[in-house]
TrEMBL record, chain A:
<feature type="domain" description="Rhodanese">
    <location>
        <begin position="298"/>
        <end position="331"/>
    </location>
</feature>
<dbReference type="GO" id="GO:0042292">
    <property type="term" value="F:URM1 activating enzyme activity"/>
</dbReference>
<dbReference type="InterPro" id="IPR036873">
    <property type="entry name" value="Rhodanese-like_dom_sf"/>
</dbReference>
<dbReference type="Pfam" id="PF00899">
    <property type="entry name" value="ThiF"/>
</dbReference>
<dbReference type="GO" id="GO:0016779">
    <property type="term" value="F:nucleotidyltransferase activity"/>
</dbReference>
<keyword id="KW-0547">Nucleotide-binding</keyword>
<keyword id="KW-0548">Nucleotidyltransferase</keyword>
<protein>
    <recommendedName>
        <fullName>Rhodanese domain-containing protein</fullName>
    </recommendedName>
</protein>
<dbReference type="GO" id="GO:0004792">
    <property type="term" value="F:thiosulfate-cyanide sulfurtransferase activity"/>
</dbReference>
From TrEMBL, chain B:
<keyword id="KW-0963">Cytoplasm</keyword>
<dbReference type="GO" id="GO:0034227">
    <property type="term" value="P:tRNA thio-modification"/>
</dbReference>
<keyword id="KW-1017">Isopeptide bond</keyword>
<protein>
    <recommendedName>
        <fullName>Ubiquitin-related modifier 1</fullName>
    </recommendedName>
</protein>
<comment type="pathway">
    <text>tRNA modification; 5-methoxycarbonylmethyl-2-thiouridine-tRNA biosynthesis.</text>
</comment>
<dbReference type="InterPro" id="IPR016155">
    <property type="entry name" value="Mopterin_synth/thiamin_S_b"/>
</dbReference>
<feature type="cross-link" description="Glycyl lysine isopeptide (Gly-Lys) (interchain with K-? in acceptor proteins)">
    <location>
        <position position="122"/>
    </location>
</feature>
<dbReference type="InterPro" id="IPR015221">
    <property type="entry name" value="Urm1"/>
</dbReference>
<dbReference type="InterPro" id="IPR012675">
    <property type="entry name" value="Beta-grasp_dom_sf"/>
</dbReference>
């Protein structure tokens, strides 16, 4: 009975040979590669710019079970349909693909439970504390972590905790950056195609690991859309002996349970928008309505200096405002024209969301 | 002292992951450093002849040099306690600097040193 489809000799259903034939004939992939994928489970944490393309390609490659974790997006079930639909366009719907859609936020208290049972974790998240949490969890659960990140025109991709003595995220970045030094895509910008490239590559690294095609060497791939060549691969150190997550005597699961990841990463990221709304010292701040009223009564009452970057200024700015990027203003405050100083009772400085600049403005600039 | 041909060392420095914004928005720089530099990493160029304690130019010196001479923005975005701030990866000829001795690595003619800020977005 060995020659029965689905039996030991032909372990996949007939339609799979048709659907996945083109990847199965690849050297090093073969029948076994496809069988491995069909039996594999992958957790994709974050279903945004990185997670969505990764999910599409994992589904289309025939991964047996995919977990989607995202608490920000309520339309996660919609995404589930998209992955299945994507399969339809490739061939026959894989009714055997199991998708677990999880909308509870991953935290130190539930990560070990939620992510247990997956062969691989994809970090497609957008913040530092979750990146440390996922790395520690991957180490504790003994699964590799395929980590992707993107910002502006840049992307980074790395497989952590894999291969002989492969480092974890903490081995490479033992100390988290200060929250104020971390920008978000919302503040700094991101090109969708860049997240697409990195997300696709995360799926690719996952497929390589699951089919045994990955060489297990610790490297980081760095991408910049504007550079030629756009990719660069760097050789990383191996595991750090004293790493609290993966080093000798590491706490493993207890580390995950006992760490306050937000605190570890220096607390919550400053809420610049909220900070910007805070009431300042009387006479040093003005809200939009008061400014509008002031200008309506006398268009020359104030001179408005917009300290954002020229690109941001070019998108939208207040009528009559002048663009002097903060750096220039702080560096050469004397360059502000005398005329404008004497003719205006005050100089107003506007910024968008990156309100961390505000404090410098108030201390350095006396117009 | 060594001969004239070894009195300076020219290297390529690259910034990536947003760090280039701190350095005139220029990703690639070619730098010529003095081959022997003060042990306290003071970056006055040329090195005053009164300086007695010198060491070969290393990555720690390079970090000080970049901070003092090329950095255009707030120093804390690049340097902290004499080394790079957390979240910056340093590569020497495409290899993690931890494999090369970190700050003590002595720069050689033609070396390429890359500073990369980790990204967190997705
Ligand atoms: Zn580690």
């Amino acid at each position: 009975m060995d020659s029965v489809i689905g039996g030991p000799e032909y372990p996949l259903p007939l339609e799979d040979y048709k659907r996945y034939g083109r990847q199965m004939i690849l050297d090093g992939f073969g029948l076994q590669g496809q069988v491995n994928l069909s039996r594999a489970s992958v957790a994709v944490v974050g279903a945004g710019g990185l997670g969505c393309p990764a999910l599409q390609y994992l589904g289309a490659a025939g991964v047996g079970r995919i977990g989607i974790f995202d608490h920000d997006r309520v339309e996660i079930s919609n995404l589930q349909r998209q992955i299945l639909h994507n399969e339809e366009t490739v061939g026959i719907v894989n009714s055997r693909l199991v998708i677990d859609a999880v909308t509870s936020a991953i935290s130190a208290s539930n990560a070990l439970t939620l992510l247990a049972g997956y062969d691989l974790i994809l970090d497609c998240t957008d913040n530092v504390p979750t990146r440390y949490l996922l790395s520690d969890t991957a180490v504790a659960l003994k699964t590799p972590l395929v980590s992707g990140a993107a910002q502006k025109f840049d992307g980074q991709l790395c497989v952590y905790h894999y291969g002989e003595n492969g480092p974890c995220y903490r081995c490479i970045f033992p100390v988290p950056p200060k929250p104020s030094n971390v920008g978000s895509c919302e503040e700094l910008g991101i090109l969708g195609a860049v997240t697409g490239i990195i997300g696709n590559m995360q799926a690719l690294e996952a497929i390589k690991i699951l089919t045994g095609l990955h060489d297990g060497k610790p490297v980081m791939h760095i991408y910049n859309a504007l550079s030629t060549p756009p990719f660069r691969t760097i050789k990383l150190r191996s595991k750090r002996e004293g790493c609290p997550a993966c080093g000798t005597g590491a706490l493993e699961k207890a580390l995950v349970r006992d760490t306050d990841y937000v605190q570890f990463c220096g607390g919550l990221r400053p809420d610049w928008e909220h900070t910007g709304l805070a009431q300042g010292e009387a006479g040093k701040r003005i809200d939009a309505k008061s400014l509008s009223a002031l200008l309506a009564s006398d268009p020359f009452a104030v001179e408005i200096i917009d300290v954002r970057q020229p690109t941001e200024f070019g998108i939208v700015h207040l009528p009559g405002s002048k663009n002097v990027p903060l750096k220039q203003l702080v560096e050469y405050p004397q360059n502000m024209s005398r005329k404008s100083r004497s003719s205006s009772p005050a100089g107003w400085v506007t910024t968008h969301r990156r309100q961390q600049t505000r404090c410098e403005v108030s201390t350095e600039v006396r117009v | 002292m060594a001969g004239a041909e070894t009195s300076s060392v020219t290297i390529k420095v690259e910034f990536s992951g947003g760090l280039e914004l701190l350095f005139s928005n220029q990703r690639s720089h070619t730098l010529t450093l003095p081959a022997a530099v003060p042990t306290d990493n003071a970056t006055t160029v040329p090195v005053p002849s009164t300086i007695e304690a010198t060491k070969p130019a290393d990555i720690t010196y390079l970090i000080h040099y970049l901070r003092d001479h090329l950095l255009q923005e707030r120093a804390e975005l690049f340097e902290e306690n004499g080394t790079v701030r957390p979240g910056i990866l340093v590569l020497i000829n495409d290899t993690d600097w931890e494999l090369e001795g970190e700050g003590d690595y002595v720069v050689k003619e033609g070396d390429e040193v890359v500073f990369i800020s980790t990204l967190h977005g997705g």
